[in-house]
């Protein structure tokens, strides 16, 4: 889902080297942890037998919530999952568009995350488990081999190119960034990439290289400042580089963010070699919700192989959707009273759980503290130490918006009289910014239609699509269509004539979505220490006789905001903590993140 784009050069080398997303702040190999557990035919961790069947509350039905619930079930706990909205998926949000009577003319619109990097081995483990990898393809990013053609609309001039055959001026900009700037001391990009590769993986080197960057003060630099002060680029080069992006769109929406945010994604290969999941991304949490571990080939302790997260949840809360957690209070005995508002009935219920895993946007927690007066504030304030509350309060979010139209056919696969493709994946410095073309005809699933993301925007650009859909002015679809028809004036493109027959349009602005605070977390300069506190929270009280049962997980808590890999890996941290909380831990032959903490933990600034 992230706005950080991908490189177009050397992508096959990255695949051949099997670069793995070992986050440099804590380079634990989550993918290996998962695959080893599968090879051993065991859950990820174990709990004391006396705790089998103990209920734990999991807040949020996104990727983090469902991975936590599924793995908690496997080791014998009783997950109870609640979701404030009416759907499963969180920011994995797939919607079927097109003709409802004819699936062949329908297409899946990904309103949230839509491209999934092959280096994200923990996420791919679950895509494989639920059978989604078999129905996937390379995502058609601009300038990639999976894209027939790309048009860059910059300063009212259009540059057309096919596949990954970059124009010379773009190739030179890319070379200066990846092969010159990123090789300076202390970045050493190639050396870090080698340490991230499976055949030469070196966690100690990853830590040494990364800690040197932190010690050199790069946390204080925005992406833009790094390009000016460290790379020494001209304003013209910075502007062009910010527009063309090399992959998923322009870089300039990331210019205000901390340079470390970009560097993590580049090191770990999250920016390139993406997959499109034809079944729809939200199928992943849906299948973890409704399918049993036995059905998915996994071992379960303490339950029948055929039990599901859904069945266990409904034993406690029959209608788990539209259940808004509004307050969480720690009791003297270490358990938690949870106030849940049923949005279906308008009723409020209080439950008690020995552990709560919280996966939504963390700043919502700060709002909860001020509900129901100062006495409740004091009760809820005890959930986290003050430095962690500070990190919660200063979490910075990035906006995102999409405007989508289903089409009658993938007309962009046709060439015009000038021998160019009639339309291309388009990067513009104007209103639409990123335009993507999706063709599902190769899908093994029922939806084989096509569609266009007329606009995919970030930060300030996405705010242009807020409001009441600009009535009585033209709709956002009309605005985007007008601009794109202008960009493709030479090919006489009439985009409106290509749209589908039945309700073909949908748009979303994540700033405007209930229960969400923009699209995802993205740290500003100087916020490393805040992120360290949030990520490290799962280790709170780990050595106590009764370890803390309030655990943060999800995208906000991860080091890589906007990539579902981070949601999954923080869920695995939470699962390991639950095992310790309930008298157990990981198996000796397959140590987990808690076991690796002292060696790999993030450095404190």
Any idea of the CATH class of the largest domain?
Mainly Alpha
CATH fold annotation of the largest domain: Guanine Nucleotide Dissociation Inhibitor, domain 1
**What would you call the shape?**
globular
The poorly predicted ranges are 1-6
Mean pLDDT equals 93
Q: What's the structural domain tally? A: 2
Give me the Rg, rounded.
Answer: 24 Å
Question: Structural class, please?
Answer: alpha+beta
Strand content: 15-25%
Helical fraction equals: 25-40%
**Biggest pleated-sheet summary:** 7 strands, mixed
CATH 2nd-level architecture of the largest domain: Orthogonal Bundle
First and last CA, distance: 29 Å
Q: How many β-strand stretches?
A: 23
Q: Note the total helix count.
A: 20
The side-by-side strand order for the widest beta sheet comes to: 9-8-17-18-19-16-20
Give a verbal description of the structure.
- There is one protein chain.
- This protein is α+β, with helices and mostly antiparallel strands and 605 residues long.
- The chain has 2 domains: 40-90 and 282-396 and 522-600, FAD/NAD(P)-binding domain (3-Layer(bba) Sandwich); 93-280 and 400-509, Guanine Nucleotide Dissociation Inhibitor, domain 1.
- It contains 20 helices and 23 strands.
- The longest helix is centred in the C-terminal third of the chain and has 18 residues, at 564-581.
- The chain has a 7-stranded mixed sheet, with helices on both faces. Strands 3-2-14-22 form a 4-stranded parallel sheet. A 3-stranded antiparallel sheet has the order 6-10-7, with no helix packed on it.
């Amino acid at each position: 889902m992230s706005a950080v784009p991908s490189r177009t050069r050397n992508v096959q080398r990255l695949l051949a080297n099997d670069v793995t997303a070992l986050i440099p702040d804590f380079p634990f190999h989550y993918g290996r942890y998962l695959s080893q557990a599968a090879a051993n035919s065991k859950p990820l961790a174990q709990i004391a037998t006396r705790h089998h069947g103990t209920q734990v509350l999991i807040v949020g039905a996104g990727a983090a919530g469902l991975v936590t619930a599924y793995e908690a079930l496997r080791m014998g706990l009783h997950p109870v999952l609640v979701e404030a909205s009416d759907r499963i998926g969180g920011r994995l949000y797939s919607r079927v568009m097109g003709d409802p009577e004819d699936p062949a003319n329908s297409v899946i619109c990904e309103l949230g995350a839509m491209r999934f990097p092959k280096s994200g081995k923990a996420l791919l483990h679950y895509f494989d488990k639920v059978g989604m990898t078999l129905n996937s393809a390379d995502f058609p990013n601009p300038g990639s081999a999976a894209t027939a053609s790309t048009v860059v609309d910059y300063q009212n001039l259009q540059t057309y190119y096919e596949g990954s055959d970059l124009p010379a001026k773009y190739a030179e900009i890319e070379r200066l960034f990846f092969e010159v700037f990123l090789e300076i001391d202390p970045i050493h990009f190639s050396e870090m990439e080698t340490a991230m590769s499976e055949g030469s993986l070196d966690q100690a080197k990853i830590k040494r290289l990364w800690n040197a960057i932190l010690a050199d003060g790069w946390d204080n630099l925005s992406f833009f400042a790094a390009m000016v002060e460290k790379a020494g680029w001209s304003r013209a080069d910075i502007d062009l580089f910010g527009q063309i992006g090399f992959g998923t769109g322009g870089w300039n929406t990331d210019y205000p963010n901390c340079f470390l945010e970009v560097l993590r994604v580049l090191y770990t290969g999250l920016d390139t070699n993406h997959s499109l999941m034809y079944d729809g991304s939200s199928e992943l949490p849906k299948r973890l919700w409704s399918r049993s571990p036995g059905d998915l080939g996994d071992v379960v302790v303490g339950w029948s192989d055929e039990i599901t997260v859904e069945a266990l949840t409904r034993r406690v809360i029959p209608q788990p959707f539209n259940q808004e957690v509004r307050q969480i209070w720690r009791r003297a005995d270490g358990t938690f009273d949870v106030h849940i508002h049923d949005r279906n009935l308008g009723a409020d219920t209080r439950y008690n759980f020995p552990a709560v895993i919280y996966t939504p946007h963390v700043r919502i927690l700060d709002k909860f503290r001020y509900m129901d007066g100062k006495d409740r504030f004091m009760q809820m304030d005890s959930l986290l130490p003050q430095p962690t509350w500070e990190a919660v309060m200063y979490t910075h979010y990035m906006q995102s918006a999409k405007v989508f139209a289903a089409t009658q056919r993938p007309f962009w696969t046709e060439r015009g009289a000038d021998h160019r493709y009639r339309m291309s994946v388009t990067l513009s410095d104007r209103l639409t910014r990123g335009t993507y073309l999706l063709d599902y005809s190769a899908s093994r699933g029922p939806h084989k239609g096509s569609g266009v993301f007329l606009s995919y925007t970030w930060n300030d650009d996405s705010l242009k699509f807020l409001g009441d859909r600009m009535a009585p002015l033209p709709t956002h679809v009309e605005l985007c269509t007008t601009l794109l028809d202008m960009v493709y004036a030479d090919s006489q493109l009439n985009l409106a004539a290509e749209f589908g027959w039945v309700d073909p349009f949908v748009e979303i602005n994540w700033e405007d979505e209930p229960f969400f605070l923009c699209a995802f977390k993205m740290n500003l300069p100087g916020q490393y220490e805040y992120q360290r506190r949030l990520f490290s929270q799962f280790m709170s009280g780990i050595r106590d006789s009764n370890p803390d049962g309030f655990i943060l997980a999800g995208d906000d808590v991860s080091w890589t905001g906007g990539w579902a890999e981070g949601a999954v890996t923080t869920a695995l941290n939470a699962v390991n903590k639950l095992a310790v909380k309930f008298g157990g831990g990981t198996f000796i032959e397959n140590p987990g993140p808690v076991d690796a903490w002292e060696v790999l933990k993030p450095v404190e600034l």
